[in-house]
Amino acid sequence: TLEASRQAPALTNLTQEEMLARVQKGIRHEVLEGNVGYLRVDDIPGQEVVSKLGGFLVASVWRKLMGTSALVLDLRHCTGGHISGIPYVISYLHPGNTVLHVDTIYDRPSNTTTEIWTLPQVLGERYSADKDVVVLTSGHTGGVAEDITYILKQMRRAIVVGERTVGGALDLQKLRIGQSDFFLTVPVSRSLGPLGGGSQTWEGSGVLPCVGTPAEQALEKALAILTLRRALPGVVRRLQEALQAYYTLVDRVPTLLHHLTNMDFSTVVSEEDLVTKLNAGLQTVSEDPRLLVRAVRPKETSPGPEVGDDEPPEVVPTVPGAEAARQALVVSMFQVSVLPGNVG
Fold first, then answer.
1. What angle do CA 244, 245, 248 make, to 5 degrees?
2. Where does the Tail specific protease domain lie (predicted)?
3. Taking a C-beta distance cutoff of 8 angstroms, is the pair 86, 114 a contact?
């Protein structure tokens, strides 16, 4: 962490060509299947670098991701970066209709407190607030990358997938102990949280993911979550159509349709989440515990047994033609008694 935090300032002493080569090495991007944008950042550049290379980064990286339907921000390998780069990352994912106070940083050596706000204007365009963002983390994600992950999670702007982050420090200093050959690495800056509330943040404990999974499987898990979320509008639409066509308590249908239209699905990351949320909402609004949504697996919708299935096809019972046989069937299915007090 010390090496990563100390390498970043050296960027400002490089020529523009050297700086560009260094930044390009730490940023990779592509458009994945399903029109999902993928942006891997291994080092968060600071304000000075962004001011010099911002136009290039927007034109060569960001503009190519703007047309995607969802974005994966991969911070699994990001162990360092500049605090001054935080507002740039957050601002491109913030709608921009308001300026938002996202963090307050206290620096012990200078005894100063710095507030971090989103930018009122950015080069190029911001990523649409209607599109999903997933941040990938690992046990190595540290410092500035953790702060960005924490802020996006607290803003409910991103779903965090992967491992708990390292719980590192925003900035470190290496101090010699007296005149010895021993050195002490000390965290010298810390996050106070938005508006300087002083509450516990991610430092020390790390950022807990919304969906925990081994880091090497995080991208695959993220893409599965985005596939589910891409299907949500269609699921809601078909649910509305079914209620309009079949639900017997007709007077409650308009209220149910309104509820479905205004439901917040931002925390849904699995079929189980979706089923739980839909049932809780629909049953509360309709006051009808019989109104039930469930996820049907492909096997359950299969029209018949698959080739090689061990189970025989289901036999549909028939009513026998003979009177005696029908009476025997009724007796086997019903028990009739007159209880004391002439109670049937």
1. 80
2. 15-214
3. no
**Residues 44-97 pLDDT 10s:** 988 888 888 888 889 888 999 999 999 999 999 998 788 999 999 999 999 988
Same fold yes or no, 17-212 and 216-296: no
Query: pLDDT higher for 2 or 119?
Result: 119
- pLDDT, one tens digit per residue, over 287-297 is 999 999 998 87
Q: Give the count of alpha carbons within 13 A of 6, CB side only.
A: 8
Tokens coding 163: 């491992």
Residue with tokens 């404990």: 205
Task: Please say whether the beta carbons of 99 and 115 come within 8 A.
Answer: no
One-letter amino acid for residue 10 of the chain: A
216-296: CATH topology is: Transcription Regulator spoIIAA (3.30.750)
Angle of helix 253-261 relative to helix 271-286, nearest 10 degrees, comes to 140
**Stated pTM of the model:** 0.78
Given this structure, which CATH class describes domain 17-212?
alpha beta
CB proximity list for 84: less than 8 A, separation 6 or greater: 46, 47, 48
**What span, in angstroms and rounded, lies between the C-alpha atoms of 102 and 116?**
6
What are the structure tokens assigned to 95, written together?
A: 């709608």
